[in-house]
Design goal:
The chain is an alpha/beta fold. It is 22% helix and 27% strand.
């Protein structure tokens, strides 16, 4: 049996991003994002309803400071008390799993999507992706970029402006481009500004 383009996308295989089903789902997400990004805070019920429709696999107490951008929304799975600051981007062609009590600074970019190095394949709108996982109690500093396939361990901190190209172990502080672990964090009393 042949797989649909959506099934290939979700498995991280090469797929055709111009598939009509995927285009329709991105269009639905685009409309919901627009509503989220222009909704006034004086209408909390409307805000919550939009987030529930856009991010159905996230805890209902997720908080997002608009503007916020994502491809599909349904591939983002988040635990309780997750906070996205202004202008975050999540390219969720594959699953993005976010633990509980995770903080994202402004301008964070999470990319599960990737494109082939071969120009002919790119011209044909082929792409693939790799899932990203972020553990509990993490702090992802402003303007951090997480590349396809990375895992951030529980309680880790990623310093502002870092480009994360490989996994970061639990209880680590990583910074730089490419990000590297600068030091291990203590369980008690570690206070870093990132």
């Amino acid at each position: 049996m042949l797989s649909s383009e959506k099934e290939k996308m979700l498995r991280g295989e090469m797929y055709d991003a111009s598939d009509p089903v995927l285009e329709a789902e991105r269009s639905t997400a685009r409309a919901l994002r627009h509503r989220l990004n222009v909704t006034e805070y004086d209408d909390p019920a409307c805000y919550r309803n939009i987030i529930a429709a856009l991010l159905p696999n996230c805890s209902p107490d997720i908080w997002i400071e608009p503007p916020f951008y994502c491809d599909y929304g349904y591939n983002i799975i988040a635990g309780e008390r997750v906070f996205f600051n202004y202008n975050c981007v999540v390219l969720d062609v594959c699953r993005v799993t976010i633990g509980a009590h995770v903080l994202f600074g402004p301008n964070v970019q999470i990319y599960t999507a990737t494109h082939p190095l071969d120009a002919v394949s790119r011209r044909a709108m082929h792409e693939s992706g790799s899932p990203i996982s972020i553990g509990d109690d993490c702090w992802i500093g402003g303007s951090v970029i997480l590349l396809p396939g990375v895992t951030i361990g529980d309680r880790s901190v990623i310093g502002a402006g870092a480009v994360v190209t490989r996994d970061v172990a639990a209880d680590s502080f990583a910074a730089g481009n490419p990000a590297r672990v600068v030091r291990r964090l203590n369980d008690v009393g570690d206070r870093l500004i990132a």
